[in-house]
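Q: Sequence in, structure out?
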Amino acid sequence: MTDRLHDKIALITGSDSGIGKATAIEFAKEGADVVVHYLDDAEGAGETRQAVEAEGRRAIVAQADITDEQAVHRLFEEAVEAFDRVDILMNNAGVDASGDDVADLSTETFDRAIKANLYGAFFCCRRFVQLRKSGAATGGKIINVTSVHQEIPNPGGADYDCSKGALRNLTRTLALELAPLKINVNNLGPGMVLTPFNQPAVDDPELLDEQVQSIPFKRAAEPSEIGRLAVFLASADSDYVTGSDYFMDGGLMRNVGQGA
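A: Exactly. Output:
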């Protein structure tokens, strides 16, 4: 590794599994210490912590419901108490689409996606910026994990698609507001990734083969591939990049509409 994140402190929401866990490991390989956040999978968070420590870096585990702004404040308090500051925020935690058509979509289900995927990131971004403005540190990186579905909707995905589209525009607004503070804010939009979000396909090779046919590369991404893109967005290599969308989808978005 190139030590691109030497002695940086990263807070990654939802780092008990999937993309968040893989990113925590990639960050540690590049020299970062990590705040491992989880909602209810304490065992998974502990495994992530062990993996970070195995790379020779420090880690703490912190539980929080990111849809609760007071819980988010406590999360950052734990991070600052342990490491004095947070240099990198990756908003990765969230929920998947319900699969319900709009006509059948309950208000409670819609709210769940908006609160987890949008409000959670908003609360974390706001607290991160407040701490930077307080003089705790200068500069910084925010990575918001959106999705290809911020741009391409799916039937049965209105709750998820709307939340990710809104998060896209939160990122763009923050990029303008935070440029004077030298805080970079970008979206990382995965396509299909082999995580618990896609567990049926992970467990069934035939289903996986069927689902990747619309992807030009004919495969899903490994979580570590997303993590390595996150390393770029968290490092000095991306210091002149802000308000941008980085899709890692094997060409899926370019394939939409082919054959029409």
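The beta strands are 9-12, 33-38, 59-63, 88-91, 140-145, 183-190, 245-248.
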